[in-house]
């Protein structure tokens, strides 16, 4: 006699149930630890950023001896693998199994969008890092805030700076072909063209482009090229751009992740002089940031950038809110109100939230320089209290469709 | 003996919500969806000998049609479900005409290409599909006025659909048509000589598999309430194929075990180790080395050998 299929399935299911029936941790309503969940992509193409996020969060808790607002803190990190479906399962894992009180993350726009409804349904206070515009514009959630920036938020000041101070007239944009790149270039284009400039070419390259040669060859002659890339793509593009001798012919400027500190550490003198824009720089001269960068560099041997900085800012906002409610994290409404009412002093400066839950804070124009033998993003101009709507009228802004590959239409493209 | 085990298993599945927590219920619902999807792919891979790397097309297209009709055009879930299943089936018929011009590797490449086209469309036609941002804010249907928003309700719903799908596919493969499909898989020329039309048989199986792929897609979008081009990607097709092959293609239990295994490794084991990708690789390596025909047939053989040895 052989074992039947059903017998086999039955025994497997039996074993599975035995593990499910194991007592789940029961948490006390009061007095137990504060449970913080983190959604970070630790595998897949976004892993570099996700791992930085985890390092920063672990370091933050370690610096505070795992105590925030007088209560012990327990951390649960879940790997979203950079896919929407897994992000949702992982959010469920954090909320339904680990009973977390609040969530920091996720990183990618599509991860955040995939779980947005679920987080709202579960009334889970979330401080996101994802830059998707609509999370805090046309589809805001009362339970979601973002202490970093929307995709385009930092592009506006750079566009303004390019038009007014650098007197650029014609710019080519190049970015990764996904929502983040589309939105950033759209915002840059809008502010730049409103200031009299012209975007003469928009190039979008697949997220995984092995060779930028054919794209570099396409670049038209202009005053500058704007890099809207993420991850290591900016670095790889730039290297070929320089090999083709184009850096002598046109200036290079970049968005908030193009020459992130995590990318800069792999570059040489060719990066010197490039201007980028971000809500953060490891070079920011304030005591909080000094302490953060020193500690971070001591552990990792490199400067914190967008991802680590974003989590650190989120932690500072969260800690401020926890203090304001005396650590009573079980009252989720009060916690969320405290987060939204935040006035926390963070490594990027004071962070406030607008009524959609997006940070209003300083945006910095930074220049790559060499200091102490390594490349750094030195701040050369500060745009104070930049909102996600820049100088545009909020109501009108929201009436338009969300930024995309084709919106707003580029009218000045050269054939 | 066999019936007792079956009854016990059925009772266990039905009563799962009474003792498993929300998280495990949701995980089980996802497994059920993956099971339907793997079963439908198995019709092609296991019974038809047609290895497809584009099966996610059916899942994704059904999900997208339903998502677009309900969210953008305000359709009810009932008509949207019917249209999306019909649409997916028609698409399967068209794809079948194109892909079945070839067999073997050629077939694989065409299905891959077709699914990449759809993935590209979903990604690029952002005014229709919302591109990389996906379509958020979807709802679950209320069949007969019963809301499916609680994990238990959705689980039972998925269980009913899965049981029905399993039954329908079991009937399909054990029917005389199923036999002719297996015949075409093993001896297409002999079948042709006997007067069967191998192309037509493959085509019908392809459409039937597309239909159930679409059903899995509907459940998928109901479950996630969100749809993103990633669901149409090759990775999503390959994962299902991996499940079918690991579980044992050409058996009915194989895809069930394989789909559950892949999903558990991906979603459950990853909570305990950062290196779950390595674990996934090791498990598959183990299966390939020790049980090349898949888990279910492999374990069957193993047990038979053990029993034989003890006698």
Mean pLDDT of chain B: 92
Structural class designation of chain B? mainly alpha
Number of helices, where a helix is a run of at least 4 consecutive DSSP H or I residues of chain B: 14
Which descriptor suits the 3D outline of chain B? Answer: globular
Give the biggest sheet of chain A. Answer: 9 strands, mixed
Helix content of chain A: 25-40%
Oligomeric state of this protein: heterodimer
CATH level-3 fold name of the largest domain in chain A? Rossmann fold
Tell me the fraction of residues in β-strands of chain B, as a range. Answer: under 5%
Q: Helical amount among residues of chain B, as a percent range?
A: over 70%
N-to-C order of helices and strands of chain B:
HHHHHHHHHHHHHH
Number of strands of chain A: 15
Major protein interface: A-B, 52 and 53 residues
Shape of chain A: globular
Largest sheet of chain B: none
Task: Give structural notes.
The complex is a heterodimer of chains A (415) and B (311). In chain A, strands 7, 8, 9, 10, 11, 12, 13, 14 and 15 form a nine-stranded mixed β-sheet that branches. About 6% of the residues of chain A have low confidence. Chain A has two domains: 218 residues, Rossmann fold, CATH 3.40.50; 166 residues, Response regulator (Rossmann fold), CATH 3.40.50.2300. With 415 residues, chain A is an alpha/beta fold. Chain B is mainly α. Chain B has a domain of 213 residues. The longest helix of chain B has 27 residues. Chain B is globular and about 60 Å long. The mean pLDDT of chain B is 92. Chains A and B meet through helix 1, helix 3, helix 4 and helix 6 of A and helix 1, helix 2, helix 12 and helix 14 of B.
